[in-house]
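Field: sequence (string)
Field: structure_tokens (string)

Example rows 1 and 2, in order.
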Amino acid sequence: MSSLPSYWMIPIIVALVGAALTLLTLWQMRRRRQNKLALRVLAGQRRLLGQEVDERFEELAEIDEEDLRSRLDVAIGLVDGLHVGLLERQAHLQNIEDLAHLQRHKIAVLGHHLDEAASQAPEQPPPIEDEPEQLPQTREDLEDDLLGRISQHTPPRSKRRLD
């Protein structure tokens, strides 16, 4: 009876080995299909890239070298002009910074002289305020006062003859 259990295991082992071989075959077929698809995609990309490269070569062949050189010269001139403008602006900014520094120095020196003068000057008594003048209240009084002041300040004129 010991041989009986071994007989029924053989078909199970054969079935398992067959199933494993079937799975392995299916997996390889799937992998081949994926590889073929990837190769088709890569071939299409290669063809598209080749067409784009050919188009670019045609565009490069159509470029006029003299026109390209003249544009390059113009571009170099513009860059040089921008550089000169930049240097001028930097010089202008430096001048402004120098002027600001001189103004700060001048303010400091004048402040120092003002402090010295204030410390050396004797204290003066506050000015005595006089009684404020009474201002005329009416328009006629204002006009008379203004005419009086004008007549005091202007010398009398001699009459000229107009003929």
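Row 2 begins here:
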Amino acid sequence: MLPLQPLNIQAAGQVPATTITIEKTNGLSIKMETPNLIVRTMQEEDILPMQALFQRVENLTHYADGKPRDPQWTNRRCRGWMDRWADGNPFSGMAIYNKQDEFVGYFVLGYGDHPETEEENAPGFSEAALMIEYYHWNKGYCKEILKAAKETLIPSLKQFELSGAPLESVVFTTSPHNMYMVRACDALDLKPWKTLEPNEGSNRWDEQKYIYWVHV
């Protein structure tokens, strides 16, 4: 796969498809705006909707073991991401809202395992995850977020190090039954690099997984 390129500058007077703002004051914050969504640094106000997100079984059909998460588990995860932002670390969780200020879900570029050697928290390797509230499905949000991540967010993070090395690759892992993710990846020309059978290698779950490997 060819190296990703930053989003092209739009013609004068034309609304850009995606914009991104990175601020390095008092830690780090990122805000990315797409035609229909705002994806930004996780904040205190996002914890309650995140807890609800992880409690609804409809949202968890293809997430890990499919079981709802305790609110305290979600609270710890959100606060861990917030601590990373405060430390200037962009490989963390982001909240997603639509232009009507409705909570949509979350996106994270976190620490990842090397897709070949399976080294944990491999230098320069990030794993992406995305979850959207089930009542926001069928709106094109999944494809919109992945497109913005591929074309804008990921290239913007090349200036940062991950586990002691510059960002090199991003891994997307999903169930082949998660048709929203699979269709979005196909539409963006991200083909499965590898298929892991249940409980094979880094796949700890009782379900087959597709791995999409994006070189930065």
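free_text_note (row 2): The two ends are 10 Å apart (CA to CA).
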